[in-house]
Amino acid sequence: MSFKVLVSDPLAEEGIAILKGFCDVDEKADLSEDELVKIIGQYDALIVRSGTQVTARIIEAADNMKYIGRAGVGVDNIDCDAATKKGIIVSNAPEGNTLAATEHTVAMMMALARNIPQASASLKKGEWKRSKFMGNEMNGKTLGVVGFGRIGREVAKRAQALQMTVIAYDPFIPAEVGAAMGVEMMSVAELFTKADVITVHTPLIPSTTHMVNKDSIATMRDGVRIINCARGGIIDEAALYDAVVSGKIAGAALDVFEEEPPTSSPLLTLDKVIVTPHLGASTVEAQKNVAISVAQQCIEVLKGGSARSAVNAPLIAPEIRPKLEPFALLTEKMGSLAAQLADGAITEVEFAYLGEVSEMKQNLKYATRMGLKGLLDKALHEPANVVNAEFIAQQRGMTVVEKTSADAGDYKSLVEMSFKTAKGKQTISGIVTRVGPRITAINGYSMDLVPKGNVIIADHINRPGVVGPVCVLLGKYNINISNMQVGRVDVGSESLMILAVDDLVPSNVMQEVAESNGIISAKFMQL
Ligand SMILES: NC(=O)c1ccc[n+]([C@@H]2O[C@H](COP(=O)([O-])OP(=O)(O)OC[C@H]3O[C@@H](n4cnc5c(N)ncnc54)[C@H](O)[C@@H]3O)[C@@H](O)[C@H]2O)c1
Ligand SMILES: O=C(O)[C@H](O)COP(=O)(O)O
């Protein structure tokens, strides 16, 4: 089967070539939302940069879509929630353009300090105004970096090479990370009061929207310079305009804008504001990096795998994957078993990873999602997947709990899945063996069940004359039993009979099994 990929923003040739080696590729730039809605249904994957707004309407119409790739960092032009609901993996290329954006930031800072764009334009007009373009040295000045992620840190290193003092604010980065680089981390309020130059490197999210505003500008040093090569909207453009006009801010360098392109922004009329049209990632090197990254991830997803930089699916460290996959298969089977065992709606599900398996820590989220997929697939028209399983579970009123413990009793590793319905709590235990997953207990009844194929599970009283008639009954209908075991606690007590059968068991036969002497309840399951 041949997959179809739409590339709706300019993508470097190296990425296109990789995609073409695997699938059909259409390159169509500048499509409107309506045009995209019309054609998107035929594509298995979509690759964009920041030019295409991937709206909920487009995603709603993307019935064959498995993957949306962002050849760059910011996914703020993609409705990731809508993609998650539809089970579409969204990934970006987070490292590919870090250095391009870093160097652009440094270039903007130096251009701002030395009035290079203005002086260049003036000279080209035939002027020779040397005193008009007096600048400042960056040597010895304090640079305030807001957002100390990939780009923020690389900018810091280069500023230090210019002999600047670097201070930083990032609520998610420990002070030791800064200290190890000779950067003092502090509150944003303190940073604003101390910096000669402020550069922002955060995503545009509610906590960063307009974090540079009228009030925060008032706390800054007179003559501060401000740089935004991250996202339009982090700086309140109206407040910036007023502060540049008043002289409070000596100059601003902007690569990104609240509205792009910023056709009517009054900031474009100010001499002290220098601008570039969102060029931070526009280097040959960065474009090659991000194009190759998303092309490779796209192919991985279309082949049924996962994307290494997925933003809406659990990430798995590559070295962990071979160890984790068998447990994910186990939890998927446990989920499927739970869905068929449960009487009534499941309100709470818990996955407990015990023993050595618990060491995989945050990677276990993947196994949990696969468990939920197994649980939900039996109930849904469209199969769930690792992207949307947790979302769907929550939407259906299930609380999902994940636990770990180093203690697995007699096992090296054990997984216990418990689930609650109005009728109470049930628990399934399972292990991974060399030859695949095994269910070792259901509700405390020990067994060694291969979770595969057709199975009858029957609650019964463990006394003579109960198991035999069920086997005779199945024989009467020509249903072959390939494996049989009884999980019991004591003779004469309630026990669990597990019959692996080669064929589907029709409901009328299951009715007879359920009514057979000593049987309390019986269910036919497909695992
Ligand atoms: N101009 C361009 O062409 C261009 C190119 C690449 C990246 N970008 C943008 O640059 C930004 C940074 O990219 P990155 O690769 O360094 O991302 P990153 O995820 O590595 O770093 C972002 C940092 O912001 C921090 N942060 C989050 N909320 C914060 C808050 N409220 N206050 C302070 N810090 C906060 C995070 O903890 C993180 O460390 C992104 O917005 C990205 O889209 C722009
Ligand atoms: O988030 C990013 O990676 C940058 O904003 C680059 O955007 P672009 O791919 O549209 O140049």
Automatic annotation (TrEMBL):
It is an enzyme of class 1 (oxidoreductase). Its EC number is 1.1.1.95. Keywords: Amino-acid biosynthesis, NAD, Oxidoreductase, Serine biosynthesis. Residues 455-527 form the ACT domain. Pfam families: 2-Hacid_dh, 2-Hacid_dh_C, ACT, PGDH_inter. InterPro entries: ACT-like_dom_sf, ACT_dom, ASB_dom_sf, D-isomer_2_OHA_DH_cat_dom, D-isomer_DH_CS, D-isomer_DH_CS1, D-isomer_DH_NAD-bd, NAD(P)-bd_dom_sf. It catalyses: (2R)-3-phosphoglycerate + NAD(+) = 3-phosphooxypyruvate + NADH + H(+). Pathway: Amino-acid biosynthesis; L-serine biosynthesis; L-serine from 3-phospho-D-glycerate: step 1/3. GO terms for biological process: L-serine biosynthetic process. The keyword Oxidoreductase applies. PANTHER family: FORMATE DEHYDROGENASE 1, HYDROXYPYRUVATE REDUCTASE. Belongs to the D-isomer specific 2-hydroxyacid dehydrogenase family. NCBIfam families: PGDH. This is D-3-phosphoglycerate dehydrogenase. The lineage of its organism: Archaea, Methanobacteriati, Methanobacteriota, Stenosarchaea group, Methanomicrobia. The gene is serA.
